[in-house]
Design brief:
462 residues, two-stranded antiparallel sheet
C-alpha cells in the first residue's frame, strides 16, 4: 500500500479556504450560545483564562493530530482510520475511531439542527414580537416555541435542508463555496454587533467581567467544564475536522512557487480565529446584558430570553437583535455542514451518489432529531425521562461528555503511540525539532491524561 493516499473527494482551493472551512466547523453555537452563558455561570475572567489554557495545551495539539490523520488518510474518517491502521500494522479495531467520530457528528447534527432552528425562528420573530417586550412576554415567547412541536419541526426541517443541500454539492461547489460567503458575513456581523455593544455605556463592565481574574470563583467543576468546552468548540473527536483534513493538500503553488502546507501553523490560525469569535461574542453580549441590569449567569436562556429582552429595551435594538440571530444561524450553518460530511463522504466512497447520500443522512438525522423536538413538549414529562434526562439531554450528554472526549483521547493515543513516527514527522513537516518534541510529549502524555479527567468526570468517577 502507498504510504500516502490522495484525497478522493477533491481538495480545498487554497490554504485559506481550508482555514475558513475548519474555522466554520469550529465556530458555531458553542461560541455564540454556549461560551457566553457558561462564562457567566462560572464567574467570568478566571474561567476564560482556564478555557484559553485548555485550548492552547490540549485543543491545539489534538486538533493538529486529527487533521494529520485526515490528510494522511485522504478519505472519510471511517476509511481513513481503516487505511491508517493497516499502514501502521496495528489492530483493525483502531478503525473504530472513525466510526465513533462519524456517529458522534451525526448524533450532534440531529439535535444541533433543532437548536439552530430556534435561532432561525427568532430571525423572523425578532422584528415583530419583541418591540417594547416585557420579561414575561419574552419568556412566554420562548416557552411557547418549545411547547409547539409543529413549529419546532418546521424550523428543524428548514435548517436540515439548508445543511444537507450544501453537503450534496460536494467539497468545492458546496462546502467551499458556502464558507467563502458565510464566514466573511459572520465576521462582519460580529464586528457590527461589537460596535453596537460599545455604544451601550456598559462596554467596560463587559470587558471587566470577561477579563478580571477572580480565582475565588474558580471551582474544580469550572476547570472540567472549560476543558470539555475546549473540545466542543474546536469540533474535536467527532470526525468533522478529520474529514476536512482529508481535503487539505500537502503542497500549493503560491506566487508561482510550490510550497508545503503546514498543518501546525494552520491549526494555530484556526484556533486563534475560533477563540477570537468566542471572546468577541462575549464582548458583544455582556455589555448589552449589563446595560439592562440583567444577570450574565442566565444559563442556556441567555440567548433566547435575556438577550431579546435586552435588545427590545435599546435604541435600534430590534434591528441589531435580528442581525444577532442571523449571526447565530450563520455560525450554526457553517458548523452543521461539517457534521453531515463524514458519513456522506463514507457513503460516496461506497459508490453512493453524493446527492442520494446527503438526502439519506439528512432524513435520518431529521428523524432522530424529532426525539429532541418532542423532548420539550410531547415527551417532556417525568415519565419519559431516563436517568432524569430527556432524550435531548441524554443525546447531548452522550456526545459532548463521552463520545467527544473519548474520540479525542483515542486520536491522541493513536497519533502519539501507534502511528509510525516517520509517517507523523513527514505529514506534520515541522522544521523546529524542539517544537515537534513538545507536541509529541503533549499528545502522548499530557493531553490523554487531561482528556481522561474530563471523561471520568462525565462518568461520575471523579
Amino acid at each position: 500500500m502507498k504510504k500516502e493516499m490522495k484525497p478522493v473527494h477533491g481538495v480545498w482551493a487554497s490554504r485559506w479556504v481550508f482555514i475558513l472551512a475548519a474555522t466554520g466547523s469550529a465556530v458555531g453555537l458553542g461560541n455564540i450560545w454556549k461560551f457566553p452563558y457558561i462564562t457567566g455561570d462560572y464567574g467570568g475572567g478566571a474561567f476564560v483564562l482556564v478555557y484559553l489554557a485548555c485550548i492552547l495545551i490540549i485543543g491545539i495539539p489534538v486538533m493538529t493530530a486529527e487533521i494529520m490523520l485526515g490528510r494522511r488518510g485522504g478519505m472519510s474518517p471511517i476509511h481513513s482510520m481503516q487505511a491508517l491502521a493497516k499502514q501502521a500494522e496495528a489492530k483493525k479495531s483502531w478503525s473504530l475511531i472513525g466510526y465513533m467520530g462519524a456517529l458522534a457528528g451525526f448524533f450532534i447534527l440531529s439535535f444541533y439542527s433543532v437548536v439552530a432552528g430556534w435561532a432561525l425562528y427568532y430571525v423572523f420573530k425578532m422584528p415583530t414580537a419583541f418591540a417594547g417586550a416585557t420579561a414575561e412576554s419574552v419568556g412566554a415567547t420562548f416557552d411557547g416555541l418549545l411547547a409547539a412541536p409543529y413549529t419546532l419541526t418546521a424550523m428543524h426541517f428548514v435548517f436540515m435542508v439548508m445543511t444537507m443541500g450544501v453537503v450534496a454539492f460536494g467539497v468545492n461547489k458546496g462546502l467551499e463555496r458556502m464558507v467563502r460567503i458565510v464566514m466573511p458575513l459572520l465576521f462582519l456581523l460580529l464586528a457590527i454587533l461589537l460596535g453596537y455593544a460599545a455604544t451601550t455605556g456598559h462596554f467596560s463592565d463587559g470587558l471587566a467581567f470577561l477579563f478580571t481574574f477572580d480565582f475565588s470563583k474558580l471551582t474544580s467543576e469550572a476547570v472540567i467544564v472549560a476543558m470539555g468546552h475546549s473540545f466542543f468548540t474546536l469540533s474535536l473527536g467527532l470526525g468533522a475536522i478529520m474529514a476536512y483534513g482529508a481535503y487539505m493538500p500537502r503542497e500549493m503553488i503560491v506566487g508561482g512557487v510550490k510550497k508545503p502546507v503546514s498543518i501546525g501553523s494552520t491549526v494555530l490560525i484556526i484556533a486563534l480565529l475560533d477563540t477570537l469569535v468566542a471572546l468577541v461574542a462575549g464582548m458583544a453580549i455582556f455589555p448589552i446584558v449589563f446595560a439592562n441590569g440583567l444577570e450574565p449567569s442566565a444559563g442556556p436562556g441567555l440567548m433566547f430570553v435575556t438577550l431579546p429582552l435586552a435588545f427590545s429595551a435599546m435604541p435600534m435594538g430590534v434591528l441589531f437583535g435580528t442581525l444577532f440571530f442571523v449571526l447565530v444561524v450563520c455560525a450554526a450553518w457553517s458548523s452543521s455542514i461539517s457534521l453531515g460530511e463524514p458519513l456522506v463522504a463514507w457513503l460516496v466512497e461506497r459508490s453512493w451518489n453524493r446527492v442520494k447520500a446527503s438526502v439519506l443522512i439528512g432524513v435520518l438525522a431529521f428523524v432522530l432529531g424529532m426525539g429532541s423536538v418532542w423532548s420539550f413538549n410531547i415527551f417532556a414529562g417525568a415519565e419519559y425521562k431516563l436517568f432524569d434526562r430527556t432524550f435531548f439531554d441524554l443525546l447531548e450528554y452522550l456526545t459532548t461528555n463521552i463520545m467527544l472526549p473519548l474520540g479525542g483521547l483515542l486520536i491522541a493515543i493513536y497519533a502519539g503511540w501507534v502511528m509510525k513516527e516517520t509517517h507523523v514527522r513527514k505529514e506534520l513537516g515541522m522544521k523546529n525539532f524542539k517544537l515537534y518534541m513538545v507536541w509529541r510529549a503533549v499528545v502522548r502524555i499530557f493531553a490523554p491524561l487531561a482528556i481522561a479527567v474530563v471523561f471520568l468526570n462525565a462518568l461520575g468517577v471523579i
